[in-house]
Design a protein that fits this description.
Length: 792
Amino acid sequence: MGYPLLGFLLLLDLVAITTAAAANGQSSGNITLNSSLTAGAKLSYWLSPSGDFAFGFVPLPGDSSLFLLAIYYATIPNSSNIIWIPALNLTLSLDSSVVLTPDGQLSLRDPTGAEVWNPSVQNAAYAAMLDSGNFVIGSSNGSYLWESFSSPVDTILPTQSLLPNSKLISKLANDDFNEGRFEIIMQGDGSLYFYSISVPTGNLYSAYWSSTQNPSNSRLFFNSSGRIDLVTPTGEVISALTTAVTKSTADFYHRGTIDPDGVFRHYVHPKPSTEGAADQWTVMDFKPADICRTQMKGLGSGTCGFNSYCQYDSSGMVICQCPEGYSWVDPKRTYKGCKPVFAMPSCIDGVQSVGFRMVAVINLDFPLDDYEYFNPMNADECAQRCLEDCFCAASISDGTGNCWKKKFPMSDGVNDTSVQRTAFLKVGSNDALPSLSLGRNKSWTLSTSLGLGGSVLLNFTLVSAILLALHVRRRKSRQRIEDVNLGPSLRSFTFSELEVATKGFGEEVGKGACGTVYRGYLCSEQNGNLDVAVKKLRDFEPEMEKEFTNEVKIIGQTHHKNLVLLLGYCNQGVERLLVYEYMCNGTLASYLFGSVRPPWKQREEIVLGIAKGLCYLHEECSTQIIHCDIKPQNVLLDGNFTAKISDFGLSKLLLTDQTRTITGMRGTKGYVAPEWFKKLGITAKVDVYSFGVMLLEIVCCRRNVEKEMTAEKAVLCFWASDCHKAGRIDLLVEGDDEAMNDMGSVERFVIVALRCLQEDPSLRPSMGRVTQVLEETVAIPLLEIPSEALIL
């Protein structure tokens, strides 16, 4: 569902719930202990009494499968309604939850129950979403233990202050809630600074706007009349950051936001009851006045990114543009700047006039980082000097005899009628060199200085050579690749061989993040027809070639009873396929969660087999392999129901967003370790955590999350922890007579699983130790669980 439509539906829900709450006398009630919200639920928010503000989960703009915990304007259905989140870079997956716990803590949890944010409040009595837009957590005496107004992100609201030693930080883009490139810092000495920062390290560049020499402990205050002032500790106004506006706070929403372009803007939007006003956010005032020039401080790319230039539209909003010959690195993230669409000149020959031309753009300047200066020099010669210089990306002429050369990349570009300069940009040439306009009545050409005939002949020769090279490359890509040895035990297949073996890829037996799996049949002189599984990798990019080669070499060197055997590969042209032994009994998921419960002894053998396979990958391979996606779907069963791990070693071949459940994460919802969410270093212990989840599923023959069950049993990891604490592990296998007759093994498995689910990776055992306990070569007491360390 698209975000605008979801916002419209949210409005309908808000109207309904506000009306119902008012009818019940609950519209201004506090949020009581043990209340919770769930991402993706129909009503996943708490409203303020007026219905103007909400606290809850909203879909991430552009990706409705991810969510933000946010405070937002409940009546404005678009991404600009979000005014607060716990932290930038914190995106959440479906079924994440926030709960005001019985002991008075506000806890944000991922779908596995791992806590990802907590404002560190103890013994709260209630929480409330106020009509000011402030979300508060209160004590029994009515005082606030915590409030969102004290922890702003990029926005402040009327009656809110930016306190000493606090800051606002921009988003990367209007729909990208990662930490951006600009900060406003209210220092303890009373100084207010606007900084540009480097992403992702957060290093501060020079301030591009400031107000200094203010009394210590001054603050920025958004008063109730709609003006944002610097005030002293006693409340006296020092100066106005934005001026008072005629739009009253009774009829208009107000907010002050540090935007992704580094401008702090005071916006207003009519409330639903206000008639005759445009239903949009309107800028009333802003600082600094000219961001395109203000940010020119040396380091960094400026407002718009490298090789781009900054200008304003008719309303004064910033527009970033790429010059001729350049295109956006990422059209949705223009702050990344522009890239040349031609091959940049090399300095092999020193002079690079052939194959390039100069494009003149009036009123454009890249004012910093020039590396050579000439005076006097006219515009024609200024352009010619750059054309013949292999280091030069552009030259700037002011028309009065001054000329500056610029290297690649260029920064801080500005395009405005007030810029009395002309930029000459070096770009790739066509067969002809057109005249270049410097204005309405003036033209400039380089054709007389280049020898056009020789250039055409050379270009024809170069094009012919390129076409010949491409033809040879295509022929080679069609041939079977014999010169890439990915391992003595692996066979290299052609694409046509595998196409025949799979009958045109006609029998699909599985699909996952890596690609689609097809059943195939190969003719073997020793064994006759051999059943195989052919995995066709999707979305393979040329830059992944080296990674593919390295990973397949590693996989080809693994040999273990509990790993699916790789038989061969195909790396022909853009096609990348892997050929495995065929596993006739399918996945563990289909076997485990079917209508018939597998025998207990068989489940014991499957658990031990998976543990041994992971132990081999982590501790016995010459190169350690972290699977990153352990789950029943990635465990296959052969004809004897021997468990074999599949897809190991392939995580590095995935594009960054193919298995993502939050930004930057690999794995599958319900099995991912908490360090993924906390952006900590990833070790083999992430597989240990996933194994713990899967071990409980094997013991109980049910999925980790079963929404149809009662609340206490819905999340298996929670329920198993509760049963263990109560000394009633038998409840986990109730109705399973075979398991009930072997409670010693059941208890050992559950304790191992809970130890694998520790939040701190260092508290989880290694897979080697897990295997020892499962085989009973190490006693269970060595894996006793410190209750305070459980994440459950």
